[in-house]
Amino acid sequence: MSRVNESYLGNQNLKRSNVKHSWTPNEVNEWLKCSQDPEYFIEKYIKIVNVDRGLVNFNLYDYQKDIVKLSVNERFVICKMPRQCGKTTTLVGIILWYILFHQNYQVAILAHKLQQAREILSRIQLAYEHLPKWIQQGIVEWNKGNIELENGSKILASATSSSAIRGGSFNLVYLDEFAFVENNMQESFFASVYPTISSGQTTKVLITSTPNGLNMFYKIWTDSEEGKNDYKRIDVHWSEVPGRDEVWKKETIRNTSEDQFRVEFECEFIGSAHTLISATKLRTLRSIPPEASNPDTRIFKQPAEGRQYVTVVDTARGVQGDYSAFVIFDVSELPYRVVASYRNNMISPLLYPNIVYQLSKHYNRAYILVETNDIGEQIANILHHDLEYENVLTTVNNGRSGQVISPGFGQATRMGVKTSKQVKRIGCMGLKTQVESDKLIINDERILYELFRFVNIGDSYEAEEGHDDMVMCCVLFAWAMEQSYMKELTSVDLRQRLEQENEDALDENMLPFGIINRGEAALTTMIAAKRGDDSWLFAGDQEFDESMLEKNGSYGWTH
Fold it and tell me: Catalytic residue among 27, 74, 141, 177, which?
């Protein structure tokens, strides 16, 4: 049989299927050694393109060897890596090893763009073409989107989406630059794909990315650090890449920026500079598992006797767009705390009030504040008139002060609150103050996820992408807690508490002192004495009594 007939579609570098090969003892030994040692196979037989030297052997760096070992030994692996450190090339070697030495091994390569996924596949194809023919499996299918070998192994390249591999059965799912996939797509992808992954006992998920803000990649990484999931981590620092030193760092920063270097090479999870809550604070926020939950409702703390609660309600039309959502807060003391939440984008507005009613009643007949911009007024009216719920909060328009919560019963009084620009502005600033000063504890994963994307757009704040229904419940809560009526109801005044804490901190840092001024003039000494009420008097004050010094002493501060 001629070599032309042995090739795949005339490509002399590829072997077609069903080509017989006479193995030599050395080839048999090499094949067995490669099948048992992926590092050996990669370094001896994989060719890569070097930008300076062209086609060269792939000599693994230490961190790349760690990726290979972890990818072989663990089911779930996540790699946080800087730019241009050879992560994709490493995966080329790993994927080739799996499809060559395993029968019927199915691999899905998913990237944030289809072009990127196909670029990775093209690298695999290039490396495959430079393998010895006796290592190659015969080709059944070979194109830009997928590969199929005669041993039954396959590779699919696709953009990351909820439908990319739905219904498929894969042994390895590789997510490249996952942090750059659209945030809402990240959620829907895992919701649709994870059942496929969990159906097998050995199915692997391998995620590699440079950080891109506080998104699902960030969540998977931090959950791994806290032992909340089964992912094993690899964190590669730029200095581990040969040729990168302080000189290289300074040159890179000079040609880009400090912030860009911190994200792309230091791999810091820096959130958007325009988030309502500072990125520094967002990185410290953590979710906790609820005490009880179903797909819509999460209970983080059951109601306790004598405690006060507030429910804030946002309403959608129930057509799988925005969510109908409400959040219940414990306002009995500072810090306030999220104790329960609900979210559903299919619930009918006619059924929604019953759910709000039942859960709010469960929480000691919580006060309910309903957002009434769209159909929320209908929800408020059903709660108050049909379900006879007494604790629905009402508002009136108070001139230049805008809407205020009021228990009034006049014609100007209306159920709930309309989210005007003024209400939203006050609420956003109040929420920022509460969260950043630890006066509001939010441990609901869904709310935190929305907070990470709640950014300044134009002259307001809204979701960068996706939804902000639960965050808006928090915004309206923050607005409500600035109202005099709510402060009287709850006996908690956040502003006074913050001011008092600031005064206390200032007092602690201000040691009592006297001042000795050693100038050119005569020596002057200022003496201070402490009164019984812990205040201080200085020499020269009419109330100053030198006998106080015998009891309390004096303090000197020399310049």
Answer: 177
